[in-house]
Specification:
Number of helices: 11
CATH superfamily of the largest domain: Bira Bifunctional Protein, Domain 2
Oligomer: single chain
Number of domains: 2
Bound molecules: adenosine-5'-[phenylalaninyl-phosphate]
Radius of gyration: 39 Å
CATH topology of the largest domain: BirA Bifunctional Protein, domain 2
Strand order of the largest sheet: 1-5-6-10-9-8-7
Strand content: 15-25%
Order of helices and strands: HHHHHEEHEEHEEHEEEHEHH
Distance between the termini: 83 Å
Structural class: alpha+beta
């Protein structure tokens, strides 16, 4: 037989149990027990039917009052415990040291490019960038490389369409810079280039070059030699020597290969090829609308991987691009 006394007892019991709830898990168990579909409050309400009619009104009023009161108390406790999330039962020791963050860092090629650009900036050069997807005009024609030249062979380049390609040299940026501004020009341009070379310890199908270009009145080969020599001494150390060997590039005349005498830690030394260079061919100046009677200039293109490998004693270019973090983490 249901009675209001039993309802009062239920209210007290539920309130006491709620006061003892310490976490979201216990709160949910409390809710199921008292306010759930099969909980005590609903069961008490269900007993109205069994009462004589004259008691039903009072009993029903009290039961609903208890239900509202417990629901409100439940919501309050839920908010106190933090939006009903399941709390870790184990206490957290806030004084323990945290787990260290695993921070990545820039690739050694990127670090080197930034370092080299910084050295040239101190020598008065600005930096320019050009697209890796190029047209034949910038990669060949404006650089005085005629259609029949072997460097344009489709087997020696990554063509995308018959006239669009992945650039094979950063010399493309010489043209883009000169097209966009009048002389004087004093600029370096680092970036990726692509060639279908057979991959070995010193060759990759993708590598980085640093282009340099200086055009003004009265620029001579002496400027080229002293600027490259100065750069090598700052980057590799004051004991480094450079030499220039006659060579050929369609866009420079005269042309040279630049080598550097590198001293190894064991006391030995060797001449290492850094790249190509020379005096900008008058045809190239004419192609971009510069007055080749008035202006002269020098240009160079150096292989960045070769420099990195020499400086850090890396025996194989493939190590740089395999993405093995155990290797890359060292730099
Ligand atoms: C050139 O690319 C010319 N554009 C350089 C130049 C610029 C000459 C301006 C005159 C004036 P070359 O093909 O020799 O030249 O390449 C330059 C350097 O890039 C090489 O000395 C070498 O250090 C590097 N290099 C060339 N091919 C590869 C390769 N497959 N993998 C890694 N490095 C390479």
């Amino acid at each position: 037989m249901a009675s209001t006394a039993e309802l009062e007892q239920l209210r007290e019991e539920a309130a006491a149990a709620l006061a003892g709830v310490a976490d979201a898990h216990a709160l949910e168990a409390w809710r199921v027990r008292y306010l759930g579909m099969k909980g005590a409050v609903r069961a008490a309400l269900g007993r109205i039917k069994s009462l004589p009619p004259e008691q039903r009104r009072e009993y029903g009023r009290l039961a609903n009052e208890i239900k509202r009161g417990l629901t409100a108390a439940y919501e309050k406790r839920k908010a106190e415990l933090g939006a009903g999330t399941t709390r870790r039962v184990a206490p957290v020791d806030m004084t323990l040291p945290g787990e260290p963050l695993r921070l990545g860092h820039r690739h050694i090629i990127t670090q080197t490019i930034e370092e080299i650009v910084d050295i040239f900036a101190r020598m008065g050069f600005t930096v320019a960038y050009g697209p890796e997807v190029e047209d034949e005009r910038h990669n060949f024609e404006a650089l005085n490389i005629p259609e029949a030249h072997p460097a344009r062979d489709p087997l020696d380049n990554f063509f995308i369409t018959p006239s669009v390609m992945l650039r094979s040299q950063t010399s493309t940026v010489q043209i883009r810079v000169m097209e966009s501004q009048p002389p004087p020009v004093r600029v370096v341009s680092p970036g990726r280039v692509y060639r279908p070379d057979t991959v070995d310890a010193t060759h990759s199908f993708m590598f980085h070059q640093l282009e340099g270009l200086y055009v003004d009145e009265g620029v001579s080969m002496a400027d080229l030699k002293s600027d490259i020599d100065q750069f090598c001494k700052v980057y590799f150390g004051p004991e480094v020597r450079t030499r220039f060997r006659p060579s050929f590039f369609p866009f420079t005349e005269p042309s040279a290969e630049v080598d550097m005498l590198f001293h190894y830690e064991d006391g030995s030394s060797a001449w290492i090829e850094l790249g190509g260079c020379g005096m900008v061919d008058p045809n190239v100046l004419d192609a971009v609308g510069y007055d080749s009677e008035r202006y002269t200039g020098w240009a160079f293109g150096l292989g960045i991987e070769r420099m990195v490998m020499r400086k850090y004693n890396i025996p194989d270019i493939r190590l740089l691009f395999e993405n093995d973090v155990r290797f890359l983490r060292q730099f």
